Amino acid sequence: DTSKARAMVYAGGPRVIGLFQISEVQYCRYKYTGGLCNTTCESLMTDDITVAANCALYILRSYGFVSWGYRVSDCKCHRYPMNCDTDE
Question: How many distinct structural domains can be found in the chain?
Answer without folding.
Answer: 1
